[in-house]
Amino acid sequence: MSLKKRIFGYHVDRMPDIAFWAMSLTYRIFPDHHPIAERVAGFGIEKGAVLVDYGCGPARYIADFSRLVVDQGKVYAADVQELALKAV
Asked: What are phi and psi of 31, to 5 degrees?
């Protein structure tokens, strides 16, 4: 399989490891111009909620989700990329 097909996802079940690390590094170097906490606050998540972050990637939202549901709720992370789950 060509590198182009692996990077852009044709016939690939998950993002290649090198692409995941590049994405994670990019998020650290160039954070969003919209703070994640503000974006998450608009989701309407309440204490005690149970959430699943499908395609959690490098866990950009997990900490904010956890702060919103506090001890009464749960936040699960799901991703086909093993490195994403390790990042959580």
From this structure: -65, 160
State how far Cα 47 lies from the chain centre.
21
Q: How many CB atoms lie within 10 A of CB 56?
A: 21
Q: How far is C-alpha 86 from the geometric centre of its chain's CA atoms?
A: 11
**Tokens encoding 14:** 């998950």
- Which residue matches tokens 């904010």? 64
pTM: 0.68
Q: Other C-beta atoms within 10 Å of 57: how many?
A: 20
**57 and 32 Cβ atoms separated by less than 8 Å:** no
Closest CA to 36 of 79, 68, 71: 68
User: What is the C-alpha separation between 6 and 14, in angstroms, rounded?
Assistant: 9
> Residue 29's pLDDT band (boundaries 50, 70, 90)?
confident
